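Sorry to interrupt, but I need a hand with the structure work. I would like you to pick a protein and set down its sequence and fold. Please put the record directly below this note.
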Amino acid sequence: MATPAKREKPRTQAELLHFVEELKRQWMSTIDAMVDPLMIVGPDFAIKKANLALARHAGLEVKKVIGKKCYAAFAGRKSPCPGCKIKDTRGGSDTKNFNLEGVQGERYYEVTSQPMTELDGPSVVHVYRDRTEAKRLQMQLAQQEKLASIGLLAGGVAHEINNPLGGILIFSQMLLRELDKESPHYQDVVEIEAATQRCKAIVESLLDFARQNPGEGKKQKIEEISILDAVRTAMRFGKVSIKPGTQVDIKEEFGGEHIVTFDRNRLIQLFLNLIQNALQAMPDGGTLMVRASAAKRGDKHVGLYEVEDTGVGIAPEHLGKIFDPFFTTKDPGEGTGLGLALCYGIVQDLGGALRVESNLNVGTRFFIEIPLVGARTLKTSA
């Protein structure tokens, strides 16, 4: 049986140096082939080695990254990233895995931190994996499952409540016809009717929310429609909710009219909810800006829409909850907390995306992205 051939060892110093250089070249080629940023960091947070992915991330050449502080090259910071465990890794012998969030815009990273020993002292290998899109999809899936389950529950509750509410409303209206307006009970019955009407409005919101989910058979009229026609219709309806004496400057920037295949009423409802929320966020007046444009993403056409106000804004701790059903910051009786949940569901049915940015006492901006049908245009109504 033949024995495997042994690799001949270098015989001269030149051959040894060539052998080491070849190993180094192969190793760096392997590291540079990685799509995730990698760096070797010394005791003073200075980068000793880095791959091409990190250099591209920092917007520099590899040789210019060497020597920079890791937090400066990776996140553009002047101090170590909050949550970084580089000190714990350097002081131990085990690999650490941790998450970095909020150190570079809205990006979310999973970091592997591996201790290593070099001639000049202990160092740390950091590998950064961008998991922003994965986290977004995970949250999107969780939100859809939440909406579906709550929608089914809401639909059942609404149907059960609707029948007794109808009876209360009919009898209260009959009483109002029979009672003299001077009767001490007349105003009480007026309040009963008004409260019942509010309950019916809430029930209708519950039913609308439930109809977004499978099995809730509200027939939709699917057709090719102009999004800008729907936006302008929503703006006309929305103006009605402006309180008398409140000065609201409504502006629009529209361009690149395109078509979507969807139910027109639901599309109007999407923009109407956002516009009404914006107007309600400006009780003392302000500016409402509605923008629309079209763009091409690869071979797909998308519509980009913004609804921006200069109102009271949304607190940072509430931003992650505003699309949850029944969550509202409005006073009791002023909102059901279903408006934005409805918007989220409609955008999901369109195959699009909905997000929000807000600053307290500055204003709020909603961003909507909707896939379009080709690049054709329609004439829009005035």
Q: What stands out?
A: The mean pLDDT is 82. The first strand starts at residue 38 and ends at 41. Residues 132-178 form the longest helix (47 residues). The two ends are 90 Å apart (CA to CA).
